[in-house]
Amino acid sequence: MAAAEESFFLAKLASIMGLKHGEGINCPRLILSGEYSLAEKGPVWRLGRAMREGLPREGWREIDCRSTRIWIHHEVEDVIYEHFSDDGQTPEPNKFCLYLFPIYRKALESGGMPVHAALLEFEGNGVMLAGPGDTGKSTCCRRLPPPWKVFGDEETVVIKDHEGRYLAHPFPTWSDIYERGLKKSWDVGRSVPLSAIFFLEKSEKVEVESIGRAQAAMQFNRLAREKLTRGSWSEDLEEKFRFTRRLFENVCDLVREIPSYTLRTNLTGRFWEQIEKVLV
Question: What share of the chain is helix, strand, coil (3-state, %, to 5)?
Fold first, then answer.
């Protein structure tokens, strides 16, 4: 929910992420209260009646993020945003990164994390192709034949559910929207059980090699931090340290449960056949 001046950005973000009001998606609320104010009673007292319903009045902790102040509370997952008037100086992609804060926070608290990886599905198995930019994630996704399905080619958010399963959700490829001008959306509410992680490497030959937990943790932690620490909110050093420490703990737990591999491939090899052999 948002004050009028922020409603446009929230509606656009919801459209990109395939979210609709009232669908019951288990997700924290983003409460955008408009321009920053220095009232002494705290952020909830500056919200309208409908916006503050169900929120504790006291006990909020603030995170100062340049043009925005974020308020979080240990009893609720909802997050309150207050913006300075910046006369449109904050780029829209930066605002969207900021609004992902409560989602990443919830993922971490569940035992999960965001990660720089494509998300695929093969016969009910969730597969991540992990790697930084220019390693071939998008190219691999375009080459996959049926029955393979591609949910996202850039970012995946992993959540650990109450049964201890790791569920992977596709997240937007922001470069498609802001660099290529494409009108796309991603169904972030959709998930698939995570079965394997493949770290991409360019190679003349196609092969899959199992890797140890320590190596997998180092690579996965680096790719997750690329997503977790982006955006203006990471300027808060205390929150950044807390997030990155919890991230490393979660990564270590994940690689103990989910097998990890190096996937070496090229532009012509049938790399998916090598993955299928591992999944069988």
Answer: 35, 30, 35
